[in-house]
Design a protein that fits this description.
Strand content: under 5%
Radius of gyration: 16 Å
């Protein structure tokens, strides 16, 4: 992408920050699980954090591996990891729908953002599975490389 296209991408994501937060809230509700245990205030706070991290990852073009490891380490139950995987699948679908609706007149930008989103979500899923495997190995005394 050119610097101009990068600027367009960043401008779109910044302008749609409230919509991105709303997407995360929708994804939490649809995913259920441990997300249902969060109060509305906790959900709003987490959605704001998650949407900011999502934008940063999209702009950087990669997943924050340390953040993924930290998420797995602080998640006590394997079921919560399944909730996260369900949530990101829903979030990806909602984000792509937003792109298609809002960027119908800018197909190149929509295509680039969708490509980045799909790549990012695939990497996130792989990173989450790897971090989860590392956590299991640690519990059994093995040291992952």
């Amino acid at each position: 992408m050119t610097n101009f296209q990068d600027h367009q991408l960043e401008r779109f994501l910044t302008a749609h920050a409230p919509a991105l937060t709303a997407i995360f809230l929708q994804a939490y509700a649809a995913a259920g699980g441990h997300y249902r245990l969060l109060s509305p205030e906790e959900q709003a706070r987490q959605a704001a954090i998650d949407s900011q991290e999502f934008v940063a990852d999209l702009l950087r073009g990669e997943v924050d591996q340390q953040a993924v490891r930290q998420t797995v380490q602080t998640t006590a139950q394997a079921a919560a990891v399944a909730d996260i995987l369900r949530m990101v699948t829903i979030q990806e679908r909602l984000f792509v729908a937003l792109l298609r609706a809002e960027l119908a007149t800018q197909p190149e930008l929509a295509t680039e953002l969708e490509r980045r989103c799909r790549n990012l979500m695939a990497r996130f899923r792989v990173s989450l599975a790897g971090a989860q495997a590392d956590a299991v190995l640690r519990r059994f005394g093995a040291r992952p490389d």
